[in-house]
Amino acid sequence: MASLAEIRAKLAAMESKPGSSNTQAQSDNAIYPFWNIEEGASATFRFLPDGNEKNDFFWVERQMIRLTFPGVVGGENKPVTVQVPCGEMYGDTCPILTEVRPWFKDPALEEMGRKYWKKKSYIFQGFVTENPLSEEAPENPIRRFVIGPQIFNIIKSALMDPDMENIPTDYLSGTDFRLSKTTKGQYADYSTSKWARKERSLDETELAAIDKHGLFDLNEFLPARPSADHYKAIGEMFEASVNGDLYDPARWGNYYKPYGVEVPAGAASPTLQKASAPAAKPTPAPVAKPAVEEDDEAPFDTTPAPKVEAQPTPAPAASDGAKKSADDILAMIRNRKSA
Fold first, then answer.
1. C-alpha distances in angstroms, 338 versus 22, 174, 228, 311, 331?
2. Fold observed for domain 4-338
3. Cβ(116)–Cβ(305) under 8 Å?
4. What pLDDT does residue 300 have?
5. Nearest C-alpha neighbor of 194 from the set 155, 145, 148
6. Distance between CA atoms of residues 323 and 260, nearest Å
7. How far, in Å, CA of 106 to CA of 113, rounded?
8. Quick one: how far is CA 305 from the chain centroid?
9. pTM score, whole prediction
10. Do the Cβ atoms of 123 and 144 come closer than 8 Å?
11. What are the start-end ranges of the H helices in the chain?
């Protein structure tokens, strides 16, 4: 675990870079569902270090892309969503973002580009020291938190504040984080969340829990790095989603699927292989696993996708100022693939 000064230096370096903008089974309640807190209520967390000592931060970043379909082949014709990992999370080329980036150069395609842009969230762990929810406490009191950009920016800003003298995960001189929920329009708003004014040492019960259960390696809660077969399926699903086709569980069910959808017998299966370590991560990525279900740990991130810098690939102009149809977009994709 890095020191606070080292974390600040690395965050500052990341800010200065141009363009730097498998989940486990859901049977337990290790994920703390703070989004279920009532409006006007608050909860208090004490974040803990990552069990992976090679991680400079006390969180890991997750990048996912949502693919929507009007229904499922052989099932109900109601909209479904599949979340797939963005290849850039592993230092790979993302087949979806490769197609989407040029769309931002065309105002007629920008809205569609935002729909398929990667959504970031951050996985932390720690104690819930004040809990307004009526829930059955898990045996292991060390909970995981899936946090969106709004809350993360509050956390990061405080870390860069020189008035914070000690890293907030320090067992003796750490700081609690108070999450407060209000609403802004139709969405939950957490902008009034803040760090506690005073430092606090972990008590004997908290220290005993760490000693008994240990700390999570947060890398284990990131999706498995996709294999070549998985990337091929991601590209096919993206094209089908843009075209408005139904999700086909026989074709993609053993790769990625909407939550609750059954995979039929004889469905196409990936070739499992040991994935190499991500370029930007020191820890080897886990073996790619089939049937990655839609993540239901946290509500979808509603943060708008960022404006991306112009790319060298030219984007075709919109005809008559009208928005291009899905057929036009697919034609662009196919033309680039055949070029």
1. 33, 56, 20, 20, 11
2. Replication Fork Single-Stranded DNA Binding Protein (3.90.198)
3. no
4. 40
5. 155
6. 34
7. 10
8. 13
9. 0.73
10. yes
11. 4-16, 95-100, 107-115, 149-159, 204-213, 228-243, 249-252, 326-338
167: nearest Cα among 284, 79, 257, 46: 46
Give the C-alpha separation, 282 to 296, whole Å. Answer: 28
For residue 301 the two structure tokens come to: 């991130």
86, 118 in Cβ contact below 8 A? yes
Give the mean pLDDT per block of 10 residues along the chain (339 residues): 67 55 51 94 97 95 97 91 96 95 92 95 97 90 96 93 91 96 90 94 97 96 95 96 95 94 86 43 35 39 37 39 52 56
Predicted local confidence at residue 216, as pLDDT: 96
Per-domain boundaries in the chain: 4-338
Q: How far is Cα 3 from Cα 9, in angstroms, rounded to an integer?
A: 10
Chain centre to alpha carbon of residue 34: 16
**Can you give the pLDDT at residue 39?**
94
- Looking at residue 77, what is its pLDDT? 85
pLDDT of residue 237: 97
Residues 6+ apart with CB under 8 A from 212: none
User: Rounded to an integer, what distance in angstroms lies between the CA atom of residue 111 and that of residue 259?
Assistant: 26
Is the four-CA dihedral 114, 116, 120, 121 of positive or negative sign? positive
Partners of 188 in beta bridges: 183
Classify residue 196 by burial, with Cβ atoms within 10 Å: 0-12, 13-18, 19+: middle
